[in-house]
Amino acid sequence: MKVAVVGATGLVGTVMLKVLEERNFPLTELIPVASEKSVGKEITFKGKKFPIVSMDTAIGMRPDIALFSAGGNTSLEHAPRFKEAGTTVIDNSSAWRMDPAIKLIVPEVNAYELSIDNKIIANPNCSTIQMVVVLKPLHDKYKIKRVVVSTYQSVTGTGVKAVEQLMNERKGIDGPKAYPYEIDLNVLPHIDVFMDNGYTKEEMKMVKETNKIMSDDTIKVTATTVRIPVMGGHSESVNIEFENDFDLAEVRSILEKSPGIIVVDDVANLKYPMPKDAHEKDEVFVGRIRRDESAPKALNLWIVADNLRKGAATNAVQIAEYLIRKELV
């Protein structure tokens, strides 16, 4: 089992390597891939040194699986080349997510859609992943009509430059900026570019990706995505309106029994999910579970997950694990 990690030196790529190691992924050969300036440098995996190779070298080595986290343009250019070499590509960028021919996969939700013919598989947006893990079991039971979500997203979702900006601002250092404004002691209601409808691209990703992953265009979604000065994970305030009424105890039971979810909901003892709790964890954490008293058949939830892990690297590795388990690669 040859596995290439494309973008191995980036923020998500390094987490991919960490997750592969932690989960004892059954690879026999690791092929780290990065930009030309990194070729020849080494990364460490399971105590061994591996040289970083170029895209062309990696394609020539014909890996079984390539985990991509190197940006949309790189993926659009090179994922088809890996596919032609017989490699199954799992891509973390937005390049392929809304392509009708490409599967958009969260293993707990829709891994069953995958077949041996799917040679490029899209990993959804981080904020969408953690939300649909929670929505799916509730939709199966009560049928969701509408979702209103506000996100509180970590600077790590932007990348290394954003983390440096936050840390520099805390030290009073004037350095490169990832955002148009200061992020420390501030909140930016603006993730990705604004579109003609007044929403940002990140907000519309959540709308469209949720419908595609859940295979249900009748679910109405509206989102406001916000960047906050934290690291460790993304948080979401989610209001769900159902077709059918629900029992709160049953909702908790359903979530507690669902794969990939940990319920942290004990307000009497001030227990609820926070980004610090989700940091370096693979699960999605849910709390503040309560009925919406302003609307019938509606529920409020607070959802937190590590955006670099379940929101990116772990989800991609879980897809790869599923492919191996089902002998689809």
Description of the molecule:
- With 329 residues, the protein is α/β, with parallel strands linked by helices.
- It has 2 domains: 2-124 and 312-325, 3-Layer(aba) Sandwich (Rossmann fold); 127-307, Dihydrodipicolinate Reductase, domain 2, CATH 3.30.360.10.
- It is built from 10 helices and 14 strands.
- The chain has helices at residues 11-22, 55-60, 72-84, 107-110, 126-142, 160-171, 201-214, 248-257, 275-278, 309-325, and strands at residues 2-6, 29-33, 42-45, 48-51, 65-68, 88-91, 103-104, 120-122, 144-153, 220-227, 234-242, 261-263, 284-291, 298-305.
- The strands form 3 sheets. The protein has a 6-stranded parallel beta sheet with strand order 2-1-5-6-8-7, with helices on both faces. Strands 10-9-11-14-13-12 form a 6-stranded mixed beta sheet. Strands 3-4 form a two-stranded antiparallel sheet.
- Helix 1 crosses helix 10 (309-325), helix 5 crosses helix 7 (201-214) and helix 5 packs across helix 10 (309-325).
- It is globular and about 60 Å long.
- The mean pLDDT is 97.
